[in-house]
Specification:
The strands form two sheets. Strands 1-9-6-4-2-3 form a six-stranded parallel sheet, with helices on both faces. A three-stranded mixed sheet has the order 5-8-7. A hairpin with a 4-residue loop joins strand 7 and strand 8. The protein is an alpha/beta fold. Helix 9 packs across helix 15 and helix 15 packs across helix 16. The protein is about 55% helix and about 10% strand. It comes from Hahella chejuensis (strain KCTC 2396). One of its GO terms (molecular function) is alcohol dehydrogenase (NAD+) activity. InterPro entries: ADH_Fe/GldA, ADH_Fe_C, ADH_Fe_CS, Alcohol_dehydrogenase_Fe. Keywords: NAD, Oxidoreductase.
Length: about 400
C-alpha cells in the first residue's frame, strides 16, 4: 500500500469502566428505543453475567422484550432466522448482545434480517451489500480477545451448503460497546489466556502488516502494552477488576487497530487450523504467532516495527539494554516467554504437537487452506505453499 495514503474508521462509542452497564438505559433512550432483545448463550446466562445487564436495565426503567440464551459456539443461518423471528414476535426495537465472538456475530446477522426484512441472510453476504443503517445495536463482550465489538465483519455458517458466509459493512458496527470488568471476572484461566493471546496477535499483526498506519499503530502499541503488563497478573489474581478491565480495553483497542490495518499469516494459518482441527481461535493465534514473526524476519521484513514492540512487550529496561539490531528477535523471545508462562499456569499449548489434536499428515492440508485465506494478502512477506508448510513444521514441535 502507498505510505502516503490510508483510511481509519471507528465510529463505535466505547463505554468502559466500573458501572459501565448502568449507562445502557441512557444509551437506549438517546436512540429512542426501550424494548431490546438480549442475545446471549447458555454459558453466559449460567454464570449469571446476563443478570448484571438485566438489573442495570431494569433499574433504569428498561425491560427486555425477550432473552434468547441459546446461541451455539459456531452459529448458523438457522439460528439467526429463529432469533430474528423472536425479535419480530416480541416487538423488539433494538438488540443487546452479551457474549463472545459467536454471540456478537450472530447478533450482527440478526440485525441484518430484522432491519432489511425477510429471511434470506445469504443475500447480504460479502462486502458492501448493506446500503443503510440497521436497528440500534449494543455489544457487551464477556471475553477479552475477539474485538468483535468494534469490527465491521461477521461470519455465519450455512450448514445446508457447507460454507461460512462472510459479511462486511460499516453498518454492522454497534452503536456502542460496553466494557465492564464484571463481565470477565469469571473467565476460566485457559480462556483468559487464549483470548488475551488472540488480542495480542491482533495488535502485533496490526503493527507489522502491510496496511498499518499511524492511527492503527497507536491503538496496537497500547494494546500490546496493556496485555504484557496485566495478563500474568490476572492469571495469578483472576478476581482483580482493574486487571480485567485493562485486558478488556486492550482487546477493544486491538480490534480497532486490526480493523483498520488488517492481519496476516498468523490469522490465515489460524483460520485453517480452526476449520480443519476445530481448535479455539485464540489458541490457534497463540500457537502460530512467534513462528510467523520469525518467518517474516527471515524474509527481511518487519524488523523495525517489531523492534519497536519490544518496549511494550518487555519494558523500558530490557529495551534499553538490548542492542538495536537485536531488538526484533528479543521481541519474539518475549512473546515466547509469555507463552511459556501461560503454559505453566494453564497448559495453553505452545506447539501443534502439544494440542494432541493435530497430526503431522494434516499439515499440507492446513497449508493449502491457509493459502486461500484472505488474510495472507496483507502479510508483510510473501509465502508460497512450501514456505507456509515450513512454518507449520516449525510450529509442530519446537525442539
Amino acid at each position: 500500500m502507498s505510505k502516503g495514503y490510508y483510511e481509519f474508521f471507528c465510529p463505535v462509542k466505547v463505554i468502559a469502566g466500573e458501572a459501565a452497564l448502568e449507562h445502557i438505559p441512557f444509551e437506549l433512550s438517546a436512540l429512542g428505543v426501550s424494548n431490546p432483545l438480549m442475545i446471549t448463550d447458555k454459558g453466559v446466562r449460567g454464570a449469571g453475567l446476563s443478570d448484571y445487564v438485566i438489573t442495570a436495565c431494569s433499574e433504569g426503567g428498561v425491560e427486555m422484550a425477550s432473552i434468547f440464551d441459546d446461541v451455539p459456539p459456531d452459529s448458523s443461518t438457522e439460528v439467526v432466522r429463529s432469533i430474528a423471528a423472536v425479535y419480530r414476535e416480541q416487538g423488539a426495537d433494538s438488540i443487546i448482545a452479551v457474549g463472545g465472538g459467536s454471540v456478537i456475530d450472530t447478533a450482527k446477522a440478526i440485525n441484518i434480517l430484522v432491519s432489511e426484512g425477510g429471511d434470506n441472510l445469504a443475500k447480504y453476504s460479502g462486502a458492501g451489500m448493506l446500503k443503510r443503517p440497521l436497528k440500534p445495536f449494543f455489544v457487551i463482550p464477556t471475553t477479552a480477545g475477539t474485538g468483535s465489538e468494534v469490527t465491521s465483519v461477521a461470519v455465519i455458517a450455512d450448514r445446508k451448503k457447507g460454507v461460512k458466509l462472510p459479511f462486511g459493512s460499516p453498518f454492522l458496527l454497534p452503536n456502542a460497546a460496553i466494557i465492564d470488568p464484571r463481565m470477565t471476572l469469571t473467565l476460566p484461566a485457559h480462556i483468559t489466556a487464549a483470548t488475551a493471546m488472540d488480542a495480542l496477535t491482533h495488535a502485533v499483526e496490526a503493527y507489522t502488516c502491510m496496511a498499518k498506519n499511524p492511527l492503527s499503530d497507536a491503538y496496537a502499541f497500547s494494546a500490546v502494552k496493556k496485555i504484557s503488563e496485566h495478563l500474568l497478573e490476572v492469571m495469578d489474581n483472576p478476581k482483580d477488576p482493574q486487571g480485567r478491565l485493562e485486558l478488556a480495553q486492550a482487546s477493544t483497542m486491538a480490534g480497532i487497530a486490526f480493523s483498520n490495518s488488517m492481519v496476516g499469516l498468523v490469522h490465515a494459518l489460524g483460520h485453517a487450523l480452526g476449520v480443519i482441527c476445530h481448535l479455539p481461535h485464540g489458541m490457534c493465534m497463540s500457537l502460530f504467532l512467534p513462528y510467523v514473526l520469525e518467518y517474516n524476519l527471515r524474509k527481511g521484513k518487519i524488523r523495525e516495527p517489531l523492534a519497536e514492540l519490544l518496549l511494550p512487550l518487555a519494558g523500558a529496561r530490557v529495551y534499553a539494554n538490548t542492542p538495536p539490531e537485536q531488538r526484533a528477535r528479543r521481541a519474539v523471545a518475549a512473546i515466547r516467554e509469555l507463552r511459556d508462562e501461560l503454559f505453566e499456569r494453564c497448559k495453553l499449548p505452545r506447539t501443534l504437537k502439544e494440542t494432541g489434536k493435530v497430526s503431522l499428515d494434516l499439515l499440507p492440508k492446513i497449508a493449502d487452506v491457509a493459502m486461500d485465506d484472505g488474510s495472507i494478502i496483507f502479510n508483510p512477506a510473501e509465502a508460497d505453499f512450501e514456505e507456509v508448510l515450513e512454518v507449520l513444521k516449525s510450529a509442530w514441535d519446537d525442539m
